[in-house]
Amino acid sequence: MDAEVFRAWIVSAAGVIEANRDRLTQLDAAIGDADHGVNLARGFTAVLGALEAQGAKTATPGAILTVTGNTLISKVGGASGPLYGMAFRRAGKSLGDVADVDLPALAAALEAALAGVQQLGAAREGDKTMVDALAAATRAFSKAITRGRHRTTPCPCWPKPPRPEPSRPCPCRR
After folding, report:
1. Beta-carbon neighbour count of residue 140 at 10 Å?
2. Is the backbone of residue 9 left (phi > 0), alpha (psi -120 to 50) or beta?
3. pLDDT band at residue 170, thresholds of 50, 70 and 90?
4. Is the pLDDT reported for residue 61 higher than 70?
5. Under 8 Å CB-to-CB from 65, ≥6 apart: which residues?
6. Of 44, 69, 79, 116, which residue is the least packed, with the fewest Cβ within 10 Å?
7. Which of 5-9, 33-37, 59-63 is predicted with the least confidence, judged by mean pLDDT?
8. Angle at the Cα of 149 from the Cα atoms of 142 and 1, rounded to 5 degrees
9. Helix axis angle, 80-95 to 103-121, nearest 10°
């Protein structure tokens, strides 16, 4: 998976967050200060601007994730900015400067993201935090890779749309 795949993931995530901004805020109102959706949407809007402004400096998957993390830390208030930012920064650092990322490297990046969130938030699985979801997702992803499931199921790495041309193999199956 190259930088364009990672950029598409971030763009897609920003769209989903914006579309669900009010719902996220409503959920936060029940347990917090009712600003999570607004803050996260503001942060990802800033991420899109930062990726555009940095241009060639975000030519690798790791650079894209690092810029995303740095921007979230500086633009999202409360605990969310530092936690999400740490996850993206650790994942970006794990990927380094490679141009193409394979699935085992992505799994390692997810593990690094989880470790960063656990370290910063002093949370462990079972604490009813984002660590519970991130740990479960990371385990499931690694397990699917180990079992070779990614070879027989549709590739989830392509945002919808666009889809790769039929003649171009999915980058995670290279």
Report:
1. 11
2. alpha
3. low
4. yes
5. 6, 88, 89, 91, 92, 95, 109
6. 79
7. 33-37
8. 70
9. 140
The structural domains of the chain, ordered by start, are 3-160 (1.25.40.340)
Q: What is the CA radius of gyration of the chain?
A: 16
In this predicted structure, what is the pLDDT of residue 152?
Answer: 41
Per-chain mean pLDDT for the chain: 88
For residue 8 the two structure tokens come to 């598409």
Torsion angle defined by CA atoms of residues 137, 151, 99 and 86, in that order, rounded to the nearest 10 degrees: 0
Query: Which long-range contacts link 164-171 to residues 24+ away (Cβ below 8 Å)?
Result: 171/1, 171/2, 171/5, 171/100
